[in-house]
Amino acid sequence: FERMASLETAAEHERILREIESTDTNCIGPTLRSVYDGQEHGLFMEKLDARIRNHDREIEKMCNHHFQGFVDSITELLKVRGEAQKLKSQVTETNRHLQENGKEVKLTTSMEELRQCRVQQRNIATTIDKLTHCLPVLEMYSRLQEQMRAKRYYPALRTLEQLEQTCLPKAGQYRFCSIMAENIPKLRIQIRDTAMSQLRDFLESIRKHSDKIGETAMKQVHKHPETLGLTEFSRHGPTRPARQKGAPAAIRAGMGVNPLSEHDTGILDVEDEEEEDEVPGAQDLVDFSPVYRCLHIYTVLGLRDVFENYYRKQRRKQARLVLQPHSNMHETLEGYRRYFNQIVGFFVVEDHVLHTTQGLVNRAYVEELWELALSKIVAALRTHSSYCDDPDLVLDLKNLIVLFADTLQGYGFPVSQLFDMLLEIREQYGEILLKRWNITFRQVIDQDNYSPIPVSTEKEYRQYTSQCPFQDPELEKLPFPKKLPFSEFVPKVYCQLKEFIYACLKYSEDLHLSSTEVDDMIRKSTNLLLTRTLSHCLQYAIKKKNVGLAELVQVIINTTHLEQSCHFLEEFISNITNVPPDTVNATKLYGTSTFKDARHAAEAEIYTSLNAKIDQFLQLADYDWMAAVPGGENLAASDYLIDLIAFLKSTFSVFTNLPGRCGHLICPWDTIKKMYCCTHGHISLLISRKIKCFVNCMAHLSQGKTQQTFTCFSQLQIKSSIVLYFLKTSRF
């Protein structure tokens, strides 16, 4: 029990000690009273002393731990004391100064100086702020002036827009800002007018140099057709082909920057393009920057529609000028070339603008222009080509049109109408060829001697047989010298026929026609040459004045050989066109009928000549009715009758001079038979006429006159019997 009481006392003292330590000094009275009221205050005092000693030890430890810091603090405090003395002196001096300035006059002066200083500070701050806003305006206006002097109008317009919308509102209402604001519309008008002036200069320049642009483009296609991806295409397929990676595409690739971008000037970088493509394109000759620049400027000004309408209107006017041919264009090929060069140059420029601008010209506009141009080109070519009568010029024109069409085809324009028109010109070309060959054939006829060709050596023989197909085994066996049955007319005409075929073939080249179409065109033209031109020339040879029987016989011989050569002529056409002659619907040559008709005409001319000659002899009939009749003397026939018989003998001797069996080959039995019938008919008619005359006149004649008449008829019967016997027994 005592132990428990001591523990409780100790706990109570511990509580009291904690309360004393944690309680304010003014409030520990009740606590101490509770200690004195108890009986253990001595014990409490012991505990209190023990607690004090414990705290003293802790304080001592703490002081020992912080002693160095304390020393340092004291040292620092000593230093501060000196500074405090200085501060005290300054405060004293300031106080004295304030006391002196506190008087009324000096205070007013100081306050005024302070106010002015404050105003100056405020003005300086305001000026700095305003200059901060004005300097960008001045710098931008200075840059604008530099861009205007450098003629960089599109960047100047952008600067002007930024100056008006951003810088001037921030700068405030200053006089120079008002002046700048008033000048902005004037600067816009100046930029717009300058850009339009440059565009007009550009349009005038390309109008003058469009022929050079077109010439370059056509030369490029002529030298490097693969650069445009040109392949054989159908004349009836007007679809626009996909663009190849050729020269035009490569040129556009070199200008791949968006034309409407802010930093694009639209100027062609020719050096870079030449590095990428060694073959210069037609666009390398033109600087399109005025177009791009003017387009950008009008777009920024909100006048893009005005610019597009103006550009298209001016280009339409230029198109009409370009499409108007010169009145003497048909006289030389150079006139056609300039005409085509200008058209190609015009559409090369439009195609380039189409693919390097966004909407300045569209596909419909270009196609409309091309349709207009195509109709005018076709009409102009039809008109001017009709004046041409030189086949070489027509052929050169055809090649030029093909090059023109291929060039524009490479740029995607449909050209089927041009190839259709070339087929129309083909008909005209054929007519011109027929006229030229008509002159050639007439020259051959006029220069021909109508005599068989004499050959003295094998070389001469082979030379003639190589010019025209001729084979005669029996003639080849004969020794030299010998004669070919035909005259120079045959090999010359055959060679000219081949030359005509070659001329037709030249025109058909590069027209993208099939072999069958080419073969058909050549055969039709050759048929016209045979049935019209050569047939008329043969008629000219037959009907020509002073053509004797020998010449007519030679014409028959010549036409016979030409008729036999028609088969070889068909083979020649098949070989150069690679079309078999037995192809279905293949046109056949009409040479056989042509030469047969000519031969029949020659035979008819022979009959007509014989009839006319015999009639002339008969018209000379004159009898001497008063001639004396000596007794027993034989009377002679009249002179005209003797001449007639001599003429008939010499005429038919022409056939006896033909070598060997050539007569059968060159002058058929039908011809001889007709000649026989003609002569026999005239002689029979002569006899019948004279018999009638004899019956009518016998009653009025004396014996001498009757004897003269009988003598004439007897002589005529004898001579006519000789001639008829010769005809009947002839080897033909």
Automatic annotation (TrEMBL):
A Pfam family of this chain: EXOC6_Sec15_N
InterPro entries hit by this protein: EXOC6/Sec15, EXOC6/Sec15_C, EXOC6/Sec15_C_dom1, EXOC6_Sec15_N, EXOC6PINT-1/Sec15/Tip20_C_dom2
Keyword set, alphabetical order: Exocytosis, Transport
Span of domain Exocyst complex subunit EXOC6/Sec15 C-terminal: 417-666
Gene Ontology CC annotations of this record: exocyst; membrane
UniProt-listed PANTHER family: EXOCYST COMPLEX COMPONENT 6B, SEC15
Protein name: Exocyst complex component
Organism from which the protein derives: Oreochromis niloticus
Upper classification of the organism: Eukaryota, Metazoa, Chordata, Craniata, Vertebrata
